[in-house]
Specification:
This protein has 344 residues and is of the alpha/beta class. It is built from 16 helices and ten strands.
Length: 344
């Protein structure tokens, strides 16, 4: 059973030969290229070559393709800078006043900013190794997080807190939802086995459960429904401790829910069992700074907690740091082979 087969069986809530492994490794790929990160994230050829090289080195089952968390924001008019050794970041939002939301221009994934390079990366990876490994083409940020980037995170949180322009907030979220759907469907058209969104700012670390239910959940659900209507698979990730909302994350209908290291994994498993596959939850910090033995123990704990009955892809709880040592990545992959084999 190869990686693609193993991942698909797991996502379909069947029992594979062992737990599959995902690497959220776009910064490792950039590091290994030896190029400035800005150059790397603009080049489909460099990104594909580096991701394929990582797969040949580590033998993971799932490749998660992305070029940072600002690609769609830049395509929608935000000012973005590209440091030489770190992912891009938004320095200037595109929506200075919430009242101007109607003036925003929708993005075209095949034309705008770095989105064409991201989509072409998916095509190149699928062409080269797509029959052997499961390729997840990320659709960048979820609707809530993308809205926060367009408005400026502090401004957007103040908009929510004041609550005086709720109609405009929902208009902005309608707009960002459409942008996310466009990129998600473009990833599927590019050949990705699945797509993925990271609604990183939508968790209890920043907003209440009630705010999540009004301003994030229904829009995430719309993205999921659009992808599934097109016959696709989708993963949903939210950073931080999502224990208070993980029931609703499952309720979006996403076939894969990515679990941050701070979330109670047993609780997540309770809600996900028989409904969706979980992905996670090994600490990216531990992967970067702890020993290989510690990584093995964390991976084993994740498998013990969430692997029962299937429905688990082992992986980091969020994106891996660029300085993650190879021996720790090998330890993560090997843990699935050693401890993730199901009894027959």
């Amino acid at each position: 059973m190869n990686g693609q087969e193993r991942a698909l069986k797991t996502i379909n809530l069947e029992i594979p030969d062992r737990v599959p492994v995902d690497l959220h490794a776009f910064t490792l790929a950039a590091r290994d290229s030896g190029r400035p990160f800005g150059e790397f994230f603009h080049s489909a050829e460099l990104m594909a070559e580096a991701q394929i090289a990582l797969w040949r080195r580590f033998g993971h089952d799932v490749i998660l393709l992305e070029n940072g968390t600002t690609a769609t924001a830049e395509a929608l008019g935000c000012t973005v800078v590209y440091p030489d050794n770190a992912p891009a970041k938004v320095t200037e939002p595109s929506l200075k006043r919430l009242s101007d939301v109607g003036s925003l221009r929708q993005c075209e994934p095949e034309k705008d900013a770095t989105l064409p390079a991201l989509l072409h990366t998916t095509r190149l990876v699928k062409q080269e190794i797509g029959k052997e490994v499961f390729v997840m083409g990320r659709a960048d940020q979820g609707p809530f997080s993308l809205a926060a980037m367009l408005r400026g995170i502090n401004n957007f949180l103040m908009d929510l807190a004041y609550g005086t322009e709720r109609e405009k907030i929902h208009q902005l979220l309608d707009f960002t939802t459409e942008a996310v759907i466009r990129l998600a469907l473009a990833q599927l058209e590019a050949g990705a086995d699945a797509t993925s969104i990271g609604d990183s700012l939508a968790g209890p670390s920043l907003i209440s459960r009630d705010m999540y239910l009004e301003y994030a959940f229904p829009y995430e659900k719309r993205v999921v429904e659009a992808v599934q209507k097109a016959g696709g698979l989708i993963a949903l990730h939210i950073c931080g401790d999502t224990t208070l909302i993980v029931d609703k994350m499952v309720e979006t209908g996403a076939q894969i829910v990515e679990i941050d290291e701070r979330t109670n994994l047993a609780t997540a498993k309770t809600y996900a069992r028989g409904k969706c596959c979980l992905l996670g939850q090994v600490s990216p910090t531990a992967l970067s700074h702890e020993s290989a033995a510690t990584v093995t123990e964390l991976a084993k704990k994740t498998i013990d907690t969430a692997g029962d009955g299937g429905g688990l892809i082992l992986g980091p709880g969020c994106a891996m740091a660029a300085d993650t040592p190879d021996e720790n990545v090998h330890a993560l992959v090997q843990a699935a082979k050693t401890y993730g084999t199901y009894r027959r």
